[in-house]
Amino acid sequence: MNRMKQAVHFGAGVIGRGFIGDLLSDSGFEITFVDVDKELLSQINKTNSYDVYYIDRNYERKTIEHVNGISPIDDEEKVIKVISECDILTTSVWADNLPKIANVIVKGLLKRKENNNEKLNVLACENALFASNILKKALLECDVEITQSELDQIASFSNTSVDRMVFDASKNGKKIVEIGVEFELVIEQFNLIDPTERPIEGAIYTDNLQKYLERKIYIINCAHAIAGYLGYLKGYEYVQEAFDDTQIYDDVFAATKESAAALSLKYNFDMAELEGYINFAIGRFMTPGVKDPITRVARSPIRKLGETDRLVGPALICQQYGLENQYICKGIAAALLFRNPEDPQAVEIEMFINENGIEQAITHFTKLESNSKVHENILHFYNEFLSE
User: Can you list the domains of the chain with their CATH numbers?
Assistant: First the structure.
């Protein structure tokens, strides 16, 4: 009997189990989840399985089997061993957390090299631009020494674009994931060890990942974030309430139209295709029964205000092509007003504004020069929000 292919996936959260784990399972992999949630690992290991439920199929259940979980804190040696022997390594831990898993991954890769095992495909499946590059950089800068040459000999890093509706839930005392049927996983083909292979079924393989990344982040993530920040300012608890607000819906739709117009010029996307993509994205966020907390959607605002991320990125492309970006700038201004004492990045923004003023804060967090039109637009909307 042939052994099953082995996958190691860092992060047993909703994206890990509900998206990447689901696809890895369908692709014939046995999966080892590496996570710090001991309760969840215990649940997985009790049956070597977990359940996902399709939201848009009346919560039809699907059981993912041939899985197990390991704690990198309690069982680091086991994690090192499975990395040294596996057939693919994937992550979904948030891009901000990639440096935290770097040490143990390097130890596993060095063990793999010591054992003369085959080169490994590594895919960071994070909601960030070129996350596998971020992971590779973290590996080279971590406390465990590895050279660029050694790393290139034992691992190949393909960037990805990830998109699926996934939500944490519980049923009968167990942690489950509620998922949408539709998904998009795009994989950078030329960076795979063998560019002709398709290690994960159902994925799109491309040599131009940038356009897919920007389409996803500058439309779907842009819409989600702006709805979250505008919804916060109106006192809503869930992002679905924000989308039900006509004014917010119109503002979000207009912002995504601005992004789409820019992407159409930059990558020659068909505008009608992008408008269909917008309708799909917003319609998905309004799926009946879904409750996505504003605090989750709006979390980590500093990362989301990065110059290539979901808000500033499309605003700059609009500026580059001489297009309007008013509604995107309105969303950026709202992000700078997000306040949550339990979110360290929100606290940092608030403190910086209190100490230095909003004009310096815009430049500090977005890298936009104070004499730029985008900076001017953001400042206008920020002051407008304060006067309401």
Answer: 5-207 (3.40.50.720), 210-387 (1.10.1040.10)
